[in-house]
Design a protein that fits this description.
Elements: H1 4-7, H2 33-96, H3 99-108
Length: about 130
């Protein structure tokens, strides 16, 4: 049963509006997913190729630097070996040119030291004769 105040006119009458007709949806153009998907796949594939080429370039650069470092290491080893060889040859030359060794060789071959009082000098200046 309804409330008595509603029937007595206590409440204003509630009028219901007629429902609005729903607007018809406009027909949408169906997006071509295949074309968009192909473009997306092609773009992604292009980025993968670009990234791969860049990474390959970085790897090639690292390999070249590694080869240069190996050559540099070989050159440094060779330089140290040559320095050690030069030092050994310098020591040998110093020993060969030493005065006591030369004096011993001269004495063994029959040479005698010169007497300082008998040493004379030759003057080679033109026009001066002794």
């Amino acid at each position: 049963m309804a409330h008595p105040a509603i029937h007595a006119g206590f409440w204003p009458a509630i009028t219901r509006r007629a429902p609005r007709p729903k607007p018809k949806p406009k027909p949408r153009a169906v997006p071509r997913r295949k074309a968009a998907a192909k473009a997306g796949v092609a773009g992604g594939l292009a980025w993968i190729i670009v990234g791969s080429v860049l990474l390959a370039g970085i790897v090639a650069l690292n390999v070249a630097v590694l080869r240069l470092n190996i050559r540099l290491d070989h050159m440094n080893n060779e330089r140290e070996q040559l320095r050690a060889e030069n030092a050994a040859l310098g020591a040998k030359l110093s020993g060969a040119a030493s005065s006591p060794r030369i004096q011993a060789l001269a004495k063994a071959r029959g040479f005698v030291p010169a007497d300082p009082t008998t040493i004379g000098y030759v003057d080679l200046t033109p026009g001066r004769a002794r």
